[in-house]
Write a structure and sequence with these properties.
Elements lengths: L1 H4 L8 E5 L3 E5 L3 E6 L7 H16 L26 H4 L1 H13 L5 H16 L9 H6 L12 H4 L5 H17 L6 H11 L9 H12 L4 H7 L8 H5 L4 E13 L2 E6 L2 E7 L4 H4 L7 E5 L2 E2 L16 H10 L6 E8 L2 E8 L1 E12 L5 H11 L5
Parallel strand pairs: 1-3
Antiparallel strand pairs: 2-3, 4-11, 5-6, 6-7, 7-8, 7-9, 9-10
Helix pairs in contact: 2-4, 4-8, 5-8, 8-10, 9-10
């Protein structure tokens, strides 16, 4: 953080760690962290903890001092709307991994693997075609923090897509400026010219500063990926630094396209993905699944000593689905608003994608140079 911004805006900084739960909350000169006491091993879990620490610490600058419009001084009696949560939180989510990598606590391969995971999560959400990144930020009050059964189909996370877009914007600036500038320079400018002068920045300010650092218009990038809902052309940007996204997949498995949740002894449909076999053949959110192919899907543990307790019906039901093949028919007995129904569904097929960000074959010297300046290591 210091290398990016040039100073530490505090005399003392306090990390408050509570060894239970998970998550964090930033303060002006401290952060409150929650982490499971047994969550420091294996190494991958320890890296997750380090990125949490880095995330909340980076808020020291981004959010607590570099403030989007409407985020301070606050009106505590009303909602405060901004289109910039994708920078405030998504940008911080991007830098959490970058800071850990730059500190030598995460390899460049692990950093890129985490980005591939984020890309895969976004590509699994039909909502990416329905909600822009700016609107996801603006509507956080009524959508992100109040998800309903249609959230997967019409919403995205400004954290997740925001992290991806900050990642790609960083590459865009580096390529356009021939490696002379980066997203670091955008954040540094916001800190010097806005935070230190007690000014909040607007979406227009952010784009203008990014364009100044890039030395060219970025309107197409912002129009498509920030204000718009276009599918992201990942490789056209990743290739600039010698990387490519591969989306290989494994064996095709039976696919229903619904998520489930257990409430007491009831197995309920949590959400149904638009276009999936479950969606097209009549399964609805909040349907209670009673049986599949004539056999009950919820059971109780008859060996419980004190009282009967529900089994993990979601896991049991998923295991039974995994025994099916694409094209198999299943017969679901459900309650819908207390009316008993039977729904026959022909299962689809879907191979689980395996997203990876890897080096291109035979990278050019320019690609190698830009990668080196970005990650601090050789492109391999």
């Amino acid at each position: 953080g210091y290398k990016i911004f040039g100073d530490l805006p505090y005399n003392d900084y306090l990390f408050i760690l509570n060894l239970r739960g998970g998550g964090g909350l930033e303060h002006l000169n401290s952060t409150a962290l929650q982490w499971n006491k047994f969550g420091f091993k294996p190494e991958s879990r320890y890296r997750d903890f380090l990125t949490l620490v880095a995330h909340e610490y980076f808020h020291l600058w981004n959010v607590k001092r570099i403030k989007p419009d409407a985020l301070g001084p606050f009106d505590y009696e009303n909602e405060n709307y901004t289109k910039l949560l994708w920078v405030a939180e998504g940008g911080t989510a991007y830098y959490e991994g970058l800071l850990v990598e730059r500190a030598g606590l995460m390899s460049d391969k692990d950093f890129l693997a985490s980005k591939a995971t984020q890309l895969q999560a976004l590509q699994n959400r039909p909502g990416r075609f329905e909600t822009s990144l700016e609107n996801a930020s603006f509507d956080a009050w009524i959508k992100y923090y109040r998800p309903d059964e249609n959230a997967v189909n019409n919403q995205i996370s400004y954290y997740d897509k925001g992290e991806i877009i900050n990642f790609l914007l960083d590459i865009e600036i580096r390529k356009a400026s021939n490696g002379a500038k980066a997203l670091d320079d955008v954040m540094r400018y916001l800190y010097a010219e806005f935070a230190k002068k007690n000014k909040n920045y607007t979406p227009e300010d952010f784009q203008k500063i990014a364009e100044t650092m890039a030395g060219k218009s970025l309107n197409s990038f912002f129009s498509k990926y920030v204000r718009g809902r276009e599918e992201i052309d990942y490789n056209s940007i990743l290739n600039d630094i010698g990387l490519q996204l591969t989306t290989g997949s494994g064996t095709e498995l039976a696919y229903l396209g619904a998520d489930f949740v257990q409430q007491g002894e009831r197995l309920l449909v949590k959400q149904v993905q638009i276009g999936a076999p479950a969606y097209e053949q009549g399964l609805n959110a909040n349907d209670q699944i009673v049986a599949m192919d004539g056999f009950r899907v919820t059971q109780t543990d008859s060996f419980a000593k004190t009282s009967e307790k529900p089994s993990d019906s979601v896991k049991d039901f998923s295991t039974r689905l995994e025994m099916k093949k694409p094209g198999d028919k299943i017969r679901l007995t459900v309650f819908r608003f207390d009316e008993l129904r039977e729904i026959e569904i022909t299962l689809g097929g879907r191979a689980k994608p395996d997203f990876k960000i890897v080096a291109v074959d035979n990278p050019t010297k320019e690609q190698q140079r830009l990668y080196q300046s970005y990650m601090g290591t050789e492109l391999k």
